[in-house]
Amino acid sequence: MKHAKHSQREIYSSSKSRDLNSFAGRDIVSKTPKSKIILDIISKILFPIEMMLVIALILYATLIQIFPILYIFIFIVLLGILAGVHIKLLSGRKRRIRRKRIISLCLSVMMFVVSGFGMSYMGILNGAIGDIALGTGENADQVKNVAREPFIVYLSGVDTKNATEIKDKDLSDVNMIVVINPKDKKVLMVSTPRDYYVPLEGNANKMDKLTHAGSYGIDCSMSTLEALYDIEFNYYAKVNFKSVYDIVNSLDGVTIHSDYNFTSTHSYTGKAYTFKKGENYVLGDAALAFVRERKLFADGDRQRGKHQQELISAVVKKAISPSMFVPSNIESMLESISNNTKTNFSEKEIKKLISYQMSSMGKEWQFESISVDGTGAYRFTYSYSAQELYVMIPKMDTVNTAKEAIKAVLNGEDIPKDTESNVSGK
User: What is the rounded CA–CA span in Å between residue 31 and residue 268?
Assistant: First the structure.
């Protein structure tokens, strides 16, 4: 019996000895194929490099201030989780995690791609914004924070069909006051007819058509409207035919509402487009035909102003929709704006607006519009004193209505009820 037990102990000891010798013989490094060792080395070399790239990406995103801080924080958290998984893979016992070599390398490649794409995209985006901005942010008329304080923009449209360059001095056919209250996410557009008979820069000795103010420079147009509406502009943006054509196309078209059935040939290419009463989906050429037509309507330039407001509203709504906040879409839109717009918004302010919109996607903007009215007449003008020209004598009750509406939006209040007949909600 004792002999049997002794034999069993010898057998167990011998077996255990063989197992230990066998394990010692299966050295992890010596038995690991060279290809797997190379993968391990590559992953361990790439990891600190990719971490530095991602950190650089985060710092760059923070410095250029395009993306909301919340987005950057979420990205950092996700990076931390990914880095933790990566470290776990690299520190594991290779004889137990053969597949993790490949997973680790895949994570390295993925982080390199994300970092490279992110740096490239933000560089393009930052460059496009820089091309748009002309202002420095130091102008006394500019607000301290465009994401919190209400401000007023003068939107000037130059009627030049074949010219792509926007000149400093040119007749302004579109004269739009855009009041923006970012806190309440409200936008009010006030359209003033091009033929409005007004004192240039508030000088009663310079009575002229509003459109002629543009030939003396954008400052003259702004001063003239400031005197008429008792306001102060914080910013301006000047566009031409090519601007409308390219910007609408960069958005892959927009949906506009027409009050009438009509056909217009005033497109960029000269092609005729027919619009039906109700909603119409348009690309750049048709959009231009829509906003340039005025002779077919009883209200003439006033109706054209309404169409311009309708298109601006449609463009802004499409531009700030979640579908547009995709790298390729943002890049295309900003490029079209930078090529066809002059503005005194600073680079910092444009970035602030983009960041604010990205962080507040859940709340929709409210758009309202007003078009002031007048009576047709013939008068001598400051610019052409030799003969009488067609002008529009302002109906001051509609101008006063616009004034009240502007004050209401700036103060975060509802537009007075007595202006409802002149205001169109969007």
Answer: 73
